[in-house]
Every structure is written in C-alpha cells, then in structure tokens.
Amino acid sequence: MHIAIAGNIGSGKTTLTKMLAKRYGWIPRFEPVDNNPYLADFYADMPRWSFNLQIYFLNKRFKEVVEIAKSSETIIQDRTIFEDARIFAPNLHGQGMMSDRDFQNYADLFDLMMSLVNLPDLMIYIRSTIPNLVAQIQKRGRDYEKSIRIDYLQGLNQRYEDWIATYKGNLIIVDGDTQKFEADPHAFQQITDMIDAKLYGLFPM
Predict the structure, then answer these.
(1) Checking CA distances to 145, which of 73, 134, 135, 173 falls within 20 to 30 Å?
(2) Other C-beta atoms within 10 Å of 181: how many?
C-alpha cells in the first residue's frame, strides 16, 4: 500500500511519518530537504529559483511514485507529488514568483506524469493555522526557513484547503493545532484509530 502525509511547511509531516512507520512497520520515504541543491537559494530569491526548485521536487517525487507502485511493501511518504503541482507551483505562479511560460511548462509535465500514476491508498492531511506553523518552523530552527514570509505560508494554506476540498481519494484529516500527536499519546491513538478504520475496517471499542 501507499500511504501519504500532506500538509504545509511546519505542520508535522515528518514527525507523523516517523511515528506511523514505527507503529505499523511501514517503510518511510522522506522529503529530500537536507541534500536539496536549490532550497537555500530559493528562499533567498524565490522568483529566480522557483522553477528550478519545483522541477527538482517533481523529478524526485515522480521517481518515488514509480518505485512505490512497483514495491510489495507498505510505504508511507512524507509529502506527495500532488502538493508540488496543486499547491506549491500554483502558489508561486499566483504570487508572481514563477512566469506564465515556466508554469505552463511545469503543468504540462505534471499532467503527463499523472496519466501514469494512481492516487495513494490513503492520504493523511495535517491541517494547521498560520500561528501554529510559524511556531513549529521557529522551533526546528532551519536557517534557510527564517526568511519564509507570512503571506507565502497563507497562500499555501489556502491552496491546501482548496485542494483537500476536492480530493477524490481515501482521506483522513488531522487537526495539527489540537492533536499534538508528538507529545500526546491519546492524540496519536486517535489518528491510528482513524487509520485502522479506513484501511482495515477496525473500529475502536
């Protein structure tokens, strides 16, 4: 099976991916952040590097989707190819940080890729407010994230909500503001109960 974790920057995707991989024995696939050759440049100059960054992510994510489809294991993925194309690239284009020409080129490539892949067996979306995201981003202290603008996060959040509202696959929504799964075992149990019900038809007693 293919399980995917979606959510804005700082929502807790990586943490939840690790916790669920450990809980269920799933194989985790993490977003390529530390070795990303474009990320620091992108946050320093978004208009210059937006297309390069999005193509990098699209390439990496498509390779992952193809590998996951061929695997006999259950894999849980930190961020999906759909977020790159439905949220991050359109947000950059909408905010004037990606040209019409580059965005159309990107969109055409994504549409071709999507004709070859399926939706995940389960999508888990972590919904968070801007204050919670900012607190999480500050807590982890990545230097290149210090220049992230509030309006950039707000634009992403709105696009996440628009995308999830029309998502056609198997979906669970986690409230990242109130369900503090990293520190609260009860909150994590609530999430695993929802997963069990969706995937295995097991309802908590």
Answers:
(1) 173
(2) 21
Q: How many CA atoms lie within 13 A of 89 on its CB side?
A: 26
Helix or strand or coil: residue 166? coil
Residue 78 annotated in active site: yes
Per-residue exposure over 102-129, b if at least 16 CB sit within 10 Å of its own CB, e if not: bbeebeebbeebeeebebbebbbbbbbe
Residues 12-25 pLDDT 10s: 999 999 999 999 99
Q: What are the structure tokens assigned to 114, written together?
A: 């999507």
pLDDT band at 146 (very low <50, low <70, confident <90, very high): confident
Mention every residue, 6+ apart, whose C-beta is less than 8 A from residue 14: 30, 31, 78
The predicted model scores a pTM of: 0.87
Residues ≥6 apart with Cβ < 8 Å to 100? 93
For 57-113, write each residue's pLDDT tens digit: 999 889 989 999 999 999 999 988 999 899 999 999 999 999 999 999 999 999 999
In degrees and rounded to multiples of 5, residue 5 shows phi and psi of: -110, 125
Active-site residue, from 41, 78, 121, 143:
78
**126, 174 contact by CB (below 8 A):** yes
Query: 57: which residues sit within 8 A by CB, 6+ positions away?
Result: 32, 84, 88
How far apart CA 52 and CA 32 sit, in angstroms, is 15
